[in-house]
Specification:
It contains 2 helices and 3 strands; from the N terminus they run αβββα. The chain is an alpha+beta fold. The chain has one domain. The longest helix has 35 residues. The chain is elongated, with a radius of gyration of 23 Å. The protein starts with 8 loop residues before the first helix and ends in a 13-residue tail after the last helix.
Length: 111
Amino acid sequence: MNADANPSPALRQRYEQLKQQLLALGWVCQGSVVEVARPQGEARPYYRWTRKEDQKTVTVALSASQVKVFRRAMKQHRKLQTIIRQMRQLSAQVLLETTAGVPRRKRKKSS
């Protein structure tokens, strides 16, 4: 946390918990895996991993054994995004509460 900020112990503890959750994550991967049916007569389906890279869609064929690993990595990526969102919200709250802001003007009384 910012050395200047002095948040409550509860906020500091929550932020530290989020940092520990980040450390516990495994491999992360963006995108999606879809099962594609093969043409009539071929028994096994095949899988595609699709993701965006430099504003272009990239597709890679995956084996059945890769699918499980990629799906787990995608689940970890969603956890990563959730943790980061919570850390941002907590950081904004702490920084607004613990640093001096712009003095507010008094409102004019309406007549």
